[in-house]
Write a structure and sequence with these properties.
The chain is built from twelve helices and six strands. By secondary structure, the chain is an alpha/beta fold. It has one domain: Aromatic amino acid hydroxylase (Phenylalanine Hydroxylase, Orthogonal Bundle). β1, α4 and β2 form a beta-alpha-beta unit. α4 crosses α6 and α6 runs antiparallel to α7. The chain is globular, with a radius of gyration of 17 Å.
Length: 238
């Protein structure tokens, strides 16, 4: 049963086995492909394969570092609620895990995607500054569907499917890539299109949620995200 509260004692042996398998398998696959900031954040937030993350412990760490918290939701949050939480330094996450039968494919995001892939970088100030500012802008245009769509595209091609340049190499930081072996392999291959980060182009580019991405955008640093709000604001408010 999906709840809006993490009751840690309700996790079963199968849940712990699923987390262990997913954590070990995916970390081994992405370790040489993911941004160093993500690997450092994994250590900061004290994740391991042996235990399912406890939201209270995560929030204690995040609160001290960036002022952020994760809150539980049963499914994907609607746009206005989602952006309201972002504007107030809260990230919505599910607390349920897929079954062993679903280990290789799940149509909707579960806790592994939300928590393993998203939560560590909430300890990074430059990353979370961008996250919060996006939420704040979205609330100002929440009754303008076209502009909300623009911000959803920005979220999609950065937070979910973004790449970053590190020591001359292209690495992954987007959660949608981090939690998927197939997406990671494609993003790192020569088969995918990789472009320099351009907020205006991104906000005008459509995306699909039901397939591997065909285009990824590369940052020089997380600071570049917040710096791009000059052009983002011009597009939204002029």
């Amino acid at each position: 049963m999906r709840t809006t509260e993490q009751i840690y004692s309700n996790y079963t042996d199968e849940d712990f086995k699923v987390w262990n398998i997913l954590y070990n398998r995916q970390l081994a696959f992405i370790e040489d492909k993911v941004a160093s900031e993500f690997l450092q954040a994994l250590d900061v937030i004290k994740f391991s394969a042996e235990s399912i993350p406890n939201f209270n412990e995560i929030n204690s760490i995040l609160s001290n570092l960036t002022g952020w918290n994760i809150i539980t939701v049963p499914n994907l949050a609607p746009a206005e609620l989602f952006f309201t939480h972002l504007a107030n330094k809260r990230f919505t996450a599910t607390c349920w895990l897929r079954t062993l039968e679903q280990i290789d494919y799940l149509e909707e995001p579960d806790m592994f995607h939300d928590v393993f892939a998203h939560t560590p970088l909430l300890s990074n100030k430059e990353y979370t500054d961008f996250f919060q500012k996006m939420g704040q802008r979205a609330l100002k245009v929440i009754h303008d569907p076209a502009k909300v769509t623009m911000l959803q595209r920005l979220y999609w091609f950065t937070i979910e499917f973004g790449l970053i340049r590190s020591n001359g190499q292209t690495k992954i930081y987007g959660a949608g890539i981090i939690s998927s072996k197939e997406e990671t392999a494609h993003a790192m291959s020569k088969e995918s299109t990789k472009l320099e980060y351009d907020a205006v182009k991104i906000m005008n580019k459509e995306f699909r949620t039901d397939t591997i991405q065909d285009t990824y955008y590369i940052l020089d640093s997380f600071e570049q995200l917040s710096a791009s709000f000059s052009v983002i604001d011009h597009l939204l408010f002029n």
